[in-house]
């Protein structure tokens, strides 16, 4: 958390406890207050930095911090999951799991496939077919 947010939060907390005059403002005692050159420059810079949008309320630093924090939903999720007891068929759960799998090869489930045994390689033609072909082709 930044120092500016912390300072803003402390200012907001202080303003809720007891309303006070803003720092840098003089109490109206009737007499004009003389300021040094540095004090006037600092006051002018504070006026420039002040939020100038009409109707805009400064945000609480604590609310901003809590909003940005990651919320843990584990308890609520566990409570919901344990309270809901619906049985779904095995085929539906397998279909859901299959749809949610990635498309990469490392995400796929390896299934064992049976390899077919290779038969001894042989020719379809017999010796007689070769003889017949040789006679027809070469004319012997």
Automatic annotation (TrEMBL):
It is found in: Nucleus, Nucleolus. One of its GO terms (biological process) is ribosomal small subunit biogenesis. Residues 14-38 are annotated as: Disordered. GO terms for molecular function: enzyme binding. Keywords: Nucleus. The keyword Nucleus applies. Its main location: nucleus. GO terms for cellular component: cytosol; nucleoplasm; small-subunit processome. InterPro entries: AROS. Belongs to the AROS family. PANTHER family: ACTIVE REGULATOR OF SIRT1. This is Active regulator of SIRT1. The lineage of its organism: Eukaryota, Metazoa, Chordata, Craniata, Vertebrata. The gene is Rps19bp1.
């Amino acid at each position: 958390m930044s120092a500016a947010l912390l300072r803003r939060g402390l200012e907001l907390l202080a303003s809720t406890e007891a309303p006070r005059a803003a720092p840098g403002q003089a109490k109206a005692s009737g007499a004009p207050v003389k300021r040094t050159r540095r004090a006037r420059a600092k006051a002018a810079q504070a006026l420039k930095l002040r939020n100038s949008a009409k109707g805009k309320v400064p945000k609480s630093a604590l609310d901003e911090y809590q909003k940005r924090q990651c919320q843990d939903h584990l308890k609520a999720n566990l409570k919901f999951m344990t309270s809901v007891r619906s049985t779904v068929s095995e085929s539906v759960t397998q279909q859901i799991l299959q749809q949610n799998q990635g498309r990469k090869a490392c995400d796929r489930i390896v299934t064992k496939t049976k390899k077919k045994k290779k038969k001894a390689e042989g020719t379809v033609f017999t010796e007689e077919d070769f003889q017949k072909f040789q006679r027809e082709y070469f004319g012997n």
